[in-house]
Amino acid sequence: MTHPLDRPVWSALKSGWAHLAEGDGRALRLERGHGVFGAAADRSADSLAALGALAPAGGELWLVERDAWPAPSGTRIEHVAELVQMTCEAPVPAASPELSIVDLVEDDASDMLGLATLTRPGPFAVHTNRLGNFVGVRIDGQLVAMAGERMKMPGWSEISGVCTHPDYRARGYAAALMRTVASRMIARGETPWLTSYKANTGAIGLYETLGFRHRADMIVTVLVRA
């Protein structure tokens, strides 16, 4: 690995997510209540066996790597997709007045999980909200849009959980929330980054207007028990 973002899950589990990591030096996964991500130290038979042992019964284990990975013994590949990894040195300033953006806290967790379950921005578990700071937009008390932070490693912080209720889309909420999250990361001395499915050209186009640029092509591999 020449850059922490080349193997982002492993990098996060060895640094910003270390307190939530399960496993050992051969393979690690994020604690199940917080998410589905895992990684092996390398492709050796011993590391792959350890990775396979971390795949939960009745659940999924997601790998995010530069290249495709084989299924460890006892698992099978449920899904593979191409991703685009993007980074942002400075978010493009907003052209419209700021929205009323609120910081989301633990009391908002059930609303956040409900919005993520409805809109499916990516894996979002019962405690994913605890992985970083989230902001949102509420209309008449209803949480209609949010964005936050997920993978953490020194100098780098991932924007994730970006979603908008179907009834409130095309109003600029996602862009405004992402600018807020990215600006706060940069103020802390961190570079914002994110991943998008390569086929989601609409989302990639939005991220480019916000100042994000392509860094690398990635692959997500979803493992399940065989």
Notes on the structure:
This protein is an alpha+beta fold. It contains five helices and eleven strands, in the order H-E-E-E-H-E-E-E-H-E-E-E-H-E-H-E. It has helices at 8-13, 45-53, 109-119, 173-187, 201-209, and strands spanning 21-23, 27-30, 38-40, 61-65, 75-88, 102-104, 134-139, 142-153, 156-164, 191-197, 212-225. The strands form two sheets. Strands 4-11-5-10-9-8-7-6 form an eight-stranded mixed β-sheet. A three-stranded antiparallel β-sheet has the order 1-2-3. The longest helix has 15 residues, at 173-187. The two termini are 29 Å apart. 38% of the residues are buried.
Q: How is this fold's topology laid out?
A:
Blueprint: H1 8-13, E1 21-23, E2 27-30, E3 38-40, H2 45-53, E4 61-65, E5 75-88, E6 102-104, H3 109-119, E7 134-139, E8 142-153, E9 156-164, H4 173-187, E10 191-197, H5 201-209, E11 212-225
Parallel strand pairs: 9-10
Antiparallel strand pairs: 1-2, 2-3, 4-11, 5-10, 5-11, 6-7, 7-8, 8-9
- Alpha-carbon Rg, integer: 17 Å
Determine the fraction of residues in helical runs and give it as a percent range: 10-25%
Strands in their spatial order, largest beta sheet = 4-11-5-10-9-8-7-6
**How many individual β-strands?**
11
> Could you say which overall geometry the principal axes of the C-alpha atoms support?
globular
Mean pLDDT score, rounded? 95
Question: For the terminal residues, how far apart are their CA atoms?
Answer: 29 Å
Number of helical elements: 5
Low-pLDDT sequence parts: none
How do you describe this structure in short?
The chain is α+β, with helices and mostly antiparallel strands. The protein contains 5 helices and 11 strands; from the N terminus they run αβββαβββαβββαβαβ. It has an 8-stranded mixed beta sheet. It has a 3-stranded antiparallel beta sheet with strand order 1-2-3.
